[in-house]
Write a structure and sequence with these properties.
alpha/beta, 17 helices, seven-stranded mixed sheet, binds NADPH dihydro-nicotinamide-adenine-dinucleotide phosphate, 22 strands, single chain
């Protein structure tokens, strides 16, 4: 196995990572009551101990964000100055992307090449939203209010920053998902408290300093480190104007309820069980590579992973053989090994959750390939494919969040679409066909926030993402993702 030497800067940062929270442009937290151990999933080594924020730290972070929101340094900053700050931040992220990516691979296990592209995609998201700072718009409208003395109406709608935003992110793409929240929130003029996942907080802790270096006034960006309890303290906090959450549907429901309790605005990006439909007329070679990539990249720990493949009966066995070949040719190794195709899963607990699903499925369904974790140190799992006749299994309905694909044959388009839509989730979907009429009918009928035809679902800053049904509320990215951090003021002037 070829290996990569961890840069000295990364090693010296990891040694100091107990100074976790970042509030008012300062690191702190070395007096915490509780600490969390961060484990390298590739070899199970302990990487660092980080503090858990309790109510004192959460209150301090929210107050810092509230003060900064009211402060003229930020509140009255011109849009082009906000734009400059976001561009400067993007430049710093680009300059440091190898360091941030190395920390991400150490704590998360993902391939170093993919970690680098995740960090660079976050920089692109900050640049995309930098451009929006100077392009916020309102509307001039006509209304019919009768005014005394025959006065006329001058009426307009103005978009304003929503206020203090709490952003809670999961461990699978900690840097890019954070950027989907931070970039539009800051572009709109909000202030933010970010809480990364307890499993992968180090890359976010490192990145916090870049906000200060870029020149953001104190309190505009804050970070607290902690677990679900810290998350709950933030999402039930009464001094918060908006919660933006990405994570599981179970936690999303809890957050949705507490947001309603305080009438706090909320966006929820939740889980998925995304279908991929492969018709017999598709470019099957490309489709097989893409379906395999769609479920096995990042160890299947991807909210939009195509975990249910509906394959036309006439090509079912031959296409499955192609998928099997893709799965079995994957090189499972440490994320720093440049020849690796698949790194470890994020944690022992997550690996054991995925293995439980595989064990249950093994009693019910036909295993085509994989199905085992790798012996030795590290949390490695084989790419796994099961087949079934229909949707009547746990694997067809529940999100595994691992490298596990379920393949099911279909007879015709209606059969495929009815099985694809037969899910509590509605996040993403993909269709493979050369027939434009079939493709458009699928686009029309699939109940999902994303539909990709003849390509793998991937994000772009200008392409909104979000789920239907139990996959969430609201959209991120694009113009919609910016307006999610604004509130409308309706103004009437009688003249
Ligand atoms: P979780 O829902 O367990 O956690 C997500 C975040 O919420 C973490 O920061 C977690 O902290 C925090 N949290 C946990 N409990 C609470 C609580 N009671 N109140 C407030 N915050 C809390 O999800 P995972 O991190 O395990 O991520 C995987 C899930 O995320 C999958 O279901 C996946 O589908 C979904 N996801 C959805 C995406 C989308 O765009 N729709 C994108 C990526 C992932 P801690 O980790 O410290 O416990």
């Amino acid at each position: 196995m070829k290996m990569y030497t961890i840069p000295k800067e990364v090693e010296s940062f990891i040694e100091k990572a107990e100074f976790g929270h970042f509030i008012n442009n300062r690191y702190g937290g070395n007096m915490a009551k509780r600490y969390l151990e961060i484990i390298n999933p590739a070899n199970e080594d302990s990487l660092a101990k980080v503090p858990v924020a309790g109510s004192d730290e959460v209150d301090a972070a929210v107050s810092a964000a509230r003060d900064a929101f009211k402060s003229p340094d930020w509140h009255d900053m011109s849009p082009d100055s906000r734009e400059d700050l976001l561009h400067r931040l993007a430049t710093l992220i680009e300059e440091k992307h190898e360091t941030i990516a190395a920390i991400l691979t150490l704590e998360n296990g993902k391939l170093y090449a993919q970690a680098k592209s995740e960090v660079m995609s976050a920089a692109r998201t900050f640049r995309f939203y930098a451009g929006w700072c100077t392009k916020m718009e309102g509307d001039l409208i006509d209304i019919s209010l009768k005014q005394p003395q025959k006065k006329k109406n001058f009426t307009f709608l103005k978009r304003e920053a929503v206020g203090v935003v709490v952003a809670i992110v999961p461990w699978n793409f900690p840097i890019s998902i954070a950027s989907w929240k931070l970039a539009p929130a800051l572009a709109a003029g909000c202030t933010v408290v970010l809480k990364p996942s307890e499993v992968c907080p180090l890359s976010s802790i490192y990145m916090a300093r870049l906000f200060e270096e870029a020149g953001f006034p104190r309190g505009v960006f804050n970070l607290v480190v902690g677990d679900g309890e810290t998350g709950a303290l933030l999402t039930t906090h009464k001094n918060v104007d908006k919660i933006t959450f990405t994570g599981s549907t179970a936690v999303g429901k809890i957050i949705g309820k507490s947001a309603m309790e305080n009438l706090t605005a909320v966006s929820l990006e939740l889980g998925g069980k995304s279908p991929v439909i492969v018709f017999e007329d598709a470019d099957l070679k490309l489709a097989a590579k893409s379906v395999a990539m769609g479920i096995f990249r990042n160890g299947g720990q991807v909210c939009v992973a195509g975990s249910r493949a509906y394959i036309q009966e006439s090509i079912f066995e031959s296409f499955l053989d192609m998928l099997k070949q893709e799965a079995e040719s994957m090189n499972i190794s440490d994320g720093f090994d440049p020849d690796a195709d698949l790194g470890p899963l994020v944690s022992e607990a997550h690996l054991s959750r995925v293995c439980d699903y595989v064990e249950k499925a093994d009693n019910q369904l036909r295993l085509k390939t994989g199905g085992h974790k790798q012996e030795g140190s590290g949390f490695y799992m084989q790419p796994t494919i099961f087949t079934a006749e229909d949707n009547n299994s746990v694997l067809a309905s529940e999100e595994v969040f691992g490298p596990v694909l379920l393949a099911i044959p279909f007879s015709d388009m209606n059969h495929a679409l009815s099985m694809a839509n037969d899910s509590e989730y509605g996040l993403s979907s993909a269709v493979w066909t050369k027939d434009i009429s079939k493709a458009l009918e699928c686009v029309h009928t699939l109940d999902a926030g994303w539909v990709f035809v003849n390509s793998i679902p991937r994000s772009d800053p200008n392409f909104p993402i979000g789920g239907n049904k139990l996959s969430g509320l609201g959209r991120e990215l694009g113009k919609e993702g910016l307006y999610a951090y604004t509130k409308l003021k309706s103004v009437n002037i009688a003249y």
